[in-house]
Design goal:
GO terms for molecular function: catalytic activity. The chain is mainly α. It is 69% helix and 0% strand. It contains 16 helices and no strands.
């Protein structure tokens, strides 16, 4: 799970990082003993074969240093880290971040997954997943969400990972729809395509940031409300609906998701996302 979090915390596609994780498992590098016996070159080659080309050298170094830390400090067993943290999530997060290559995002991804086998870490959702949970009406009270899941730590882990995928999928659909605008090419279609690709990278890219930058809240606050994000998705979806089958598919899916967000706006039992309320307050304070 540390390897999974380490590779997926890099700014590359989820598919590529998952393929790399799967390949490391195939060659046995999920076994710390085999990973300990590997050379830097073997680790780098395994990452390359898994499609993790851009960060393979740094990744090979981080994997080696991780093995050394786990062997030296925890006798080759991360369960000893949990014991040292005395089952405290905050202390566990602090200790796991001692592994190079695991920043704030990596630590969150690790906790998302490890709660399925370390129940004392549950309930946990990383910040971005918690925002998405709020948007779809689950709220932000982790204990309430955990109770709704029957206090099942495995289900909590699945929810944590699944919520991030929703916005990533929308981002991918936008990028694909934008690329399709280039065929056949015209000045207007190229301009529209570039904009849609930028929109898709923004929507999907936000899921890879440990914290959303203040300027995103300021200049794109519509992304953090049901009505705003729904309207945005419908707008992008509508400009994709022409000429090409891929455009119709991408535009329709993005548009339908947008309609779902707008519907949530008019359900009284579901409050607006807390991050939108915070944005409003911060903007007003700056204006004063």
């Amino acid at each position: 799970m540390v390897i999974d979090a380490m590779l997926k915390s890099r700014p590359i596609s989820h598919d590529l990082s998952q393929r790399a994780v799967n390949h490391l498992i195939e060659v046995g590098f999920h076994d710390i003993r085999k990973l300990s016996e590997s050379s830097w070159e073997e680790r780098a080659m395994a990452l390359k074969d898994g499609g993790y080309n851009r960060y393979r050298e740094q990744g090979a170094t981080n994997l080696g240093e991780m093995v050394e830390l786990v062997n030296d400090k925890y006798a080759g067993d991360l369960n000893n880290l949990l014991k040292k943290a005395k089952n405290d999530r905050k202390k566990t997060r602090q200790l796991i971040k001692e592994i190079k290559g695991l920043g704030d995002l990596g630590a969150d991804l690790f906790l998302n997954n490890v709660q399925s086998v370390w129940p004392s870490m549950a309930p946990f959702l990383d910040g971005r997943s918690l925002e998405t949970a709020d948007k779809v009406g689950l709220g932000t009270d982790l204990e309430v969400i955990y109770a709704e899941l029957g206090r099942d730590c495995v289900s909590m882990s699945r929810l944590a990972n699944g919520l991030r995928i929703v916005n990533i999928v929308v981002g991918v659909l936008m990028v694909l729809g934008g690329i399709s605008q280039f065929f056949p090419a015209s000045m207007s279609s190229i301009i529209v395509g570039v904009y849609v690709i930028i929109f898709g990278l923004l929507v999907g890219g936000l899921e890879f940031l440990p914290n959303v930058p203040d300027y995103v809240y300021r200049y794109a606050s519509f992304l953090f409300s049901f009505l705003g994000r729904g309207g945005f998705y419908i707008f992008v979806g509508s400009i994709l609906l022409h000429d090409n089958v891929l455009r119709y598919i991408a535009g329709s899916l993005v548009g339908f998701i947008g309609l779902g967000y707008i519907a949530l706006e008019f359900i009284p039992s579901i409050e607006p996302p807390s991050n939108m309320r915070e944005t409003d307050q911060g903007w007003g304070a700056e204006q004063v």
